[in-house]
């Protein structure tokens, strides 16, 4: 099922929880609002984006494009639509779709 997986949190010095083979991304978090391994973001083989709160202390919130706010239940994957806002601790990210050949932010 998993095409690509990323685990986001504030620590990279410990083995990540499933999904196996996930890339771990540590965010600078001076306020310690993130858990060591806070959330998993998986891009499925069908291109769908799935987010799972990994039992974090401060939880994960999803705001849909229609403004609906959902507190994610720990260890329960939720499909996220393009344009949704993902809030983890003091951090937030908007889900966007990018062509594989398109430059990333900051590239020429």
Describe it for me?
The chain has 108 residues and is mostly beta strands. The strands form 2 sheets. Strands 2-1-3-4-7 form a 5-stranded mixed β-sheet, with no helix packed on it. Strands 6-5-8-9 form a 4-stranded antiparallel β-sheet, with no helix packed on it. Strand 3 and strand 4 form a beta hairpin.
Keywords:
about 110 residues, mainly beta, 5-stranded mixed beta sheet, 9 strands, globular
Global morphology:
globular
The number of helical elements comes to: 0
Spatial arrangement of strands, main beta sheet: 2-1-3-4-7
- Could you state the oligomeric state of the chains shown? single chain
User: How many angstroms separate the termini?
Assistant: 33 Å
Order of helices and strands: EEEEEEEEE
The overall pLDDT average reads 85
Low-confidence segments, given as residue ranges, are none
Strand content: 35-45%
Q: Structural class per helix/strand content?
A: mainly beta
Q: Could you give the topology of this structure?
A:
Layout: E1 2-9, E2 23-26, E3 39-44, E4 49-53, E5 60-63, E6 69-71, E7 78-80, E8 85-88, E9 91-94
Parallel strand pairs: 1-2
Antiparallel strand pairs: 1-3, 3-4, 4-7, 5-6, 5-8, 8-9
């Amino acid at each position: 099922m998993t095409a690509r997986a990323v685990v986001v949190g504030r620590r990279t010095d410990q083995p990540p929880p499933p999904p196996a083979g996930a890339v771990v991304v540590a965010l600078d978090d001076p306020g310690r609002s993130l858990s060591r391994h806070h959330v998993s973001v998986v891009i499925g083989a069908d291109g769908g984006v799935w987010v799972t709160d990994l039992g974090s202390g401060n939880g994960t919130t999803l705001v849909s494009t229609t403004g609906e706010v959902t507190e994610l239940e720990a260890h329960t994957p939720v499909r996220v639509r393009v344009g949704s806002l993902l809030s983890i601790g003091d951090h937030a990210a908007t889900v966007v779709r990018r062509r594989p050949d398109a430059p990333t932010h900051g590239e020429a």
